[in-house]
Structure formats: structure tokens, C-alpha cells
């Protein structure tokens, strides 16, 4: 399943509430899909937000441009909460969109123990904490 155009993706388990002032004050809007420009919703900027469901990417400028920040579930009362110790200080966000992921249950990967896809091979179709845990380093 290719995820090339997030604007055409179906509704999913995403929800974000954004505020135009710090500490969840002022005007607010809730979204369950992409927002290319918060100004289209009567807000000048996003100064605080709450990610209630799913993961999102927040952008410095409209149409998903500029510095970007990964926003996981939780409260972001001010810019330091999403910007952290980043030397590039962003005090506001203008656009944001949910992070879409593929159906991992349909994913598969082949690993080979020699160059040029030769030697012993393993098919990986689940999450594994380490290659050793799945027997990769055993010389049997």
C-alpha cells in the first residue's frame, strides 16, 4: 500500500486540538485530518496543542513547509514542549498533518547472511527487538 498522497487518505484514529495562545488558552480548533494553513480556520498561529490520538507532524509554515516537529500523544503547552533544545527556535506552527503508516502485517523482508543475496536467508514479517533474538548470529 503506497502512501504517496496523505491528502487523499481516509479518516483514521487521529485527533489534535490546537490553541492560538500558550497553555491551552484562546481560540481552539479540533482536527482529525490535515490542516494546510491554520489561518483558513480563523487562527493566526498555533501556540499550544494537545495530541489526543495518533501521531502528527507540525510545520513552521503553511502547506507543510519549513521546520517540522513530530508530535506524539500528549500536551504541548508552549513552543518549548515541541521544539525542545532545538537551536532553531519555532514559537508557532501553521500547518500539520497526521502520520500515516502502512499495514505492517502485510510487510515482509528477506535477510541474507552473505553478499549479493546469497547464503542462508530469513523472512522477517514481525517486529523483532534484535537480530540475535531471532537467531541471526547463531552459526548452526
Outline:
This protein is mainly beta and 140 residues long. Helices cover 4% and strands 38% of the residues.
If you had to describe this structure to a student in words, what would you say it looks like?
- There is one protein chain.
- It contains one helix and nine strands.
- Strand 4 (56-61) and strand 5 form a beta hairpin.
- With 140 residues, it is mainly β.
- The protein folds into two domains: 12-98, Crystallins (Gamma-B Crystallin, domain 1, Sandwich), CATH 2.60.20.10; 104-134, no CATH class.
- Helices cover 4% and strands 38% of the residues.
- Mean pLDDT is 82; it is low at 1-9.
- The longest helix has 5 residues, at 79-83.
- Strands 2-1-3-6 form a four-stranded antiparallel β-sheet. Strands 5-4-7 form a three-stranded antiparallel β-sheet, with no helix packed on it. Strands 8-9 form a two-stranded antiparallel ribbon.
Order of helices and strands: EEEEEEHEEE
Distance between the termini: 36 Å
Rg for CA atoms: 20 Å
CATH superfamily of the largest domain: Crystallins
Largest sheet: 4 strands, antiparallel
> How many domains?
2
CATH class assignment of the largest domain: Mainly Beta
Might you state the CATH topology name of the largest domain?
Gamma-B Crystallin, domain 1
Domain Beta/gamma crystallin 'Greek key': 54-100
Organism: Culex pipiens (House mosquito)
Keywords: Repeat
Pfam families: Crystall
